[in-house]
Amino acid sequence: SIDAARLLDRIEQLGQIGRDGGDRLVRLAGSDEDKRGRDALVSWMKEANLEVAVDKIGNIFGIWRASSEDDQAPVMVGSHIDTVIDAGVYDGCYGVLSGIEVIQTLQAAGFVPSRPIVVAAFTNEEGVRYTPDMMGSLVYAGGLSVEEALSSVGTDGSVLGEELERIGYAGCEEPGFLKPHAYVELHIEQGPVLEKEGIQIGAVENLQGISWQRITIEGVANHAGTTPISMRSDAGYAASRVISFLRDRATSSQTPTVATVGCISFEPNAVNIIPSRAIFTVDLRDPNEHSLQAEEAALAAFLTDLAAAEGVKIATERMARFEPVTFDATIVKIVEAASEQRGLTSKRMTSGAGHDAQMIARICPAAMIFVPSIGGISHNPREFTSGPDLVAGANVLLDVISNLASD
Amino acid sequence: SIDAARLLDRIEQLGQIGRDGGDRLVRLAGSDEDKRGRDALVSWMKEANLEVAVDKIGNIFGIWRASSEDDQAPVMVGSHIDTVIDAGVYDGCYGVLSGIEVIQTLQAAGFVPSRPIVVAAFTNEEGVRYTPDMMGSLVYAGGLSVEEALSSVGTDGSVLGEELERIGYAGCEEPGFLKPHAYVELHIEQGPVLEKEGIQIGAVENLQGISWQRITIEGVANHAGTTPISMRSDAGYAASRVISFLRDRATSSQTPTVATVGCISFEPNAVNIIPSRAIFTVDLRDPNEHSLQAEEAALAAFLTDLAAAEGVKIATERMARFEPVTFDATIVKIVEAASEQRGLTSKRMTSGAGHDAQMIARICPAAMIFVPSIGGISHNPREFTSGPDLVAGANVLLDVISNLASD
Ligand SMILES: NC(=O)NCCC(=O)O
Ligand SMILES: NC(=O)NCCC(=O)O
Questions:
Q1: Which pTM was predicted?
Q2: Which segments within A240-387 are labelled E, that is strand?
Q3: Cβ of A225 less than 6 Å from ligand 2
């Protein structure tokens, strides 16, 4: 079994890196805080005698070449260490640090894998500063060119490639340089299912599709006091109609689609001026591609009607679009079996969040292991998973990796 | 009659001061752009041989003491030269520049007033950078202490008193130092009524009440992909419900209340995070104090229900609150008579916008003169009033001022 204290201590330490003035954890991809997190990660990889490699999109790999079978495709375990704004400490970091922990445990046990074991930390999984999310793993899997990714402009106007250069993590490996035999990602659920049902391990068999759009509504700025309601083209009001429409559909429709408007801004953004412009994002998710497309179409139709009814112009821009992914059935079974052998309850489940596994599944068999999130809270400082649950998940990962690295 | 070319040329010149990189007119109170506008105004006042005085809140006065009757209460004509963001060129400036024009015309005609005539430009009428709006005239009328006004913190974190010092317009006169005999303000309508009805002059007999609030909704940040709709406390969605509620009431109710949400922000404002906080402004206006209070109460009741239904906390903060004002019936009649004598059509009307006249009406008889706004558009670069309409309004002002300055 893994060294529980060492794992929990590293999670704690990494969670202290990137606190802002208000003590919020903000370690956005490519930032100074990300650099400090990466430096800590590399030092732990070195402590585990791993060979450290960085690719052109800044993904970090800790490679354990333990045997003469160096030319074998490696088993890869990974996740990310970038965070959202005002984040919890587990999202992503738990999976990466558990990967190092698993390797150190196998090393200490004298285990001789029949192929290399690699722990990966992918760049910009959160997609908060640069879109799309899961960028590093997407590039690694060949779904986005390195050039395009590096030229991404962030919400703060920064360019990802320049930021990676600046913080010293613009590596020279070609993304995809190690083609994995299999990929496993351990992650907190970030949703309420496991806790609610009292189950310790999620054997993640699929992951929902993700559709991100930016919507811009153009109305007419006018005076708040003198303009009769009937003469208004109020971009802000039109935006509020879209938010309510999405919620109504998500609540009433038969599909499990969830919809979120997380970002908004008005122009000119003055108390006594009818907004001439509203810009906001829409995040739609559904495990079924067909119903995700139906929701996208319903939104598009609503926007067309709204533009006519409110006398506004509406433009949409695609920020990210990923189809649902079905994970490798064999690995899912290995996860279930490993849980059972450890006396842990498990259930097959869908991932509500996007993960690097979703991208790496394009190039090799992949699956995920979830542990419970208390109250289903994530992307929030109150994100929490108990120590025993974290340790249980890492032990399942240990067994799954040693299994996959033995064939 | 006034010198049409001189007036239109000054409006044009002042409208070029404060253009930003994107050629938008942004001359917010206390800014560098405001300083340049003020400097131009002062130079025109000096050209008209006016004695220039500045009070502690930065209001600028151009005083024409033409006779031995210097101790008489002056007739005051005024408005403001600060602008909103991406403004038109007429709002406020037209009234101030017409005041100088009227004085120069009277001077040239050898008119000898029986009391001083003063043209005033009040500080921060727009209320965009600092609240409340009509701040300079409110302080002048004794409705807000100089100290409180000078310590106002702007949307950009600046302090009005420091900004006035910096731009050299923190004067030494005590606000209210000249107690007017009467106050007249010439302004563009900023609404659609006059143009729609084909009328040249509005004799403004009252002005609606203004209620500004800032509303903060606190929800719970959580993951956009994993959090079931039923478990969300979405501050952004709750804000959209308020915007829709206000619109529905404004459209359906029997009251003429108009409601506008002009400013909004979400926190943490990320595409894949349910907003934990939404902050937005509500601008309610009604010519009837009773129905304005009823709308405020309806909003408060809705917020209480919404907080319970959505599991959010809602706090409201008062930004500005002004009761409706009834202008002086005698001056309104003088405006009507002057219009008729000039062969101009006129109608009595309500002002939808707030104006400095609303504040100065607290300390002396006051009224306003409106000219048509094409399409009712204002607080927008497309704000437009034709040259002949501008000249007609200034000539009515000339007649009204010479009348008031003769008794
Ligand atoms: N796991 C996770 O939070 N990923 C971020 C991408 C997303 O699902 O929004
Ligand atoms: N006239 C004018 O636009 N005043 C600004 C204050 C307001 O009415 O919102």
A1: 0.90
A2: 258-260, 264-267, 273-274, 277-286, 313-322, 325-326, 346-351, 366-371
A3: yes
